[in-house]
Design brief:
This protein is mainly α and 161 residues long. It has a domain of 66 residues. It contains two helices and five strands. It is elongated, with a radius of gyration of 40 Å. The termini are far apart.
């Protein structure tokens, strides 16, 4: 599928006689680049695709064509076989990538479950440590109170005594 520059023809339609004279099949989608205004032609299978304008280099979307219909499939059996083989190969590659992604997702989920378990265990440890620190703080507070009470019952000797 290739994009063909056909020059600037104002009001050129797919059914125009100009189409046949220019050597472009009548089934091709003919449209103008929205950036540079160059008239382009593309096989109907290119409808809706994003392409690069060969003239200005900008990315543009191919219109759907008349009625949004996609052109006929290749009539040549060899071309159809080549297309089927290409699509089958692409499908196999895609399925392999999907399997790889599924495996990666399973590994990530297993790792996430492990990390969640560790997080919960650590939270429980930190909670126990906080309780122990609270008990230690209470004991220290009691010791300080006892020491203060003990210091208050005995007056230090004075120089007069």
């Amino acid at each position: 599928m290739s994009v063909v520059l056909i020059g600037k023809y104002e009001g050129l339609h797919v059914n125009d006689d100009t189409t046949a004279a220019s050597g472009i099949p009548e089934t091709d989608i003919i449209f103008d680049c929205e950036y540079c205004g160059k008239s382009l032609s593309i096989d109907p299978r290119g409808a809706g695709l994003m392409i690069t304008c060969p003239d200005c280099g900008k990315r543009i979307q191919v219109p759907e064509g008349e009625g949004g219909e996609v052109g006929p499939a290749p009539a040549d059996a060899a071309e159809q076989d080549a297309t089927v083989a290409e699509l089958s190969e692409s499908l196999e590659t895609s399925q392999a990538k999907v399997q790889e992604l599924v495996q990666t997702l399973e590994e990530i989920n297993t790792r996430r479950d492990y990390l969640e378990k560790v997080r919960v265990e650590n939270f429980e440890r930190y909670d126990r440590i906080a309780r122990e620190l609270s008990i230690i703080q209470s004991a220290l507070d009691r010791i300080v109170t006892v020491l203060q009470d003990a210091g208050g019952n005995h007056n230090p000797p004075t120089a007069e005594e």
